[in-house]
Amino acid sequence: MPEQTWSPTPGTPVIEYRSSRWLFIGGLALLVFFGLAALFPDVGSPSSSRRIKMPEEPAAFIFGALAVGGLLTAIGSVPHKIRFAADERGLWWRAGRKSDLIGWDEVRAVRGQEPRPRPQGDPNAKVILSALVFTTKDPYFESRHAKLFTRPSTPGPEVELRLPNSTIVRQLTQEIARVRPDLVA
Q1: Which of 23, 51, 132, 146 could form a disulfide with 161 if both were Cys (CB 3.0 to 4.6 A apart)?
Q2: Strand 81-86 vs strand 90-95: parallel, antiparallel, or unpaired?
Q3: Cβ contact 33:98 at 8 Å
Q4: pTM score, two decimals?
Q5: How far apart are CA 111 and CA 100, in angstroms?
Q6: pLDDT tens for each residue of 48-74
Q7: Using an 8 Å Cβ cutoff, are 77 and 95 in contact?
Q8: pLDDT tens digits for 1-23?
Q9: What's the start-to-end Cα distance of the chain, in Å?
Q10: C-beta pairs of 165-169 under 8 Å, 24+ apart in sequence
């Protein structure tokens, strides 16, 4: 199947946000902290006799390995912009080099789902996260759009596209309603 390219109709409003930065910041913090500990393993060691006596080379190796782990975490989670655009053909999505088009002929309805906390007193209830929910026409929808739907598939005709906050869900729902009001439930 050929790759979709990002080519919504010119002048189409684009809704964009950045992916989470917390994992990236955590990886950088690990790199700096354990990198300094690997370079200077004897700095700050107490002069107490209760100190564990460990040679500097193994300590430097362990801290160096943890610093490399932090570097790999930071590289693997570099924040990037995620863009959505809704036009006559469908909902366009782009994140870095990945892009996809969800055609309007693939879905029966689209609705925005606002986040809600778990009801108190019901331990079996789930927290509802903000998402754009698609009611699909066929069971292969998620596999066709595997770049976008990275979570395990859900049984049934509804597919959730989780988004970071309710503002983005509202904006996307409004844009879809502007283009295809018959699909918004």
Answers
A1: 132
A2: antiparallel
A3: no
A4: 0.67
A5: 19
A6: 555 566 677 888 888 889 999 988 888
A7: no
A8: 445 567 888 888 888 888 778 88
A9: 31
A10: 165/130, 166/112, 166/114, 166/115, 166/130, 168/15, 168/17, 168/130, 169/112, 169/113, 169/114, 169/130, 169/131, 169/132
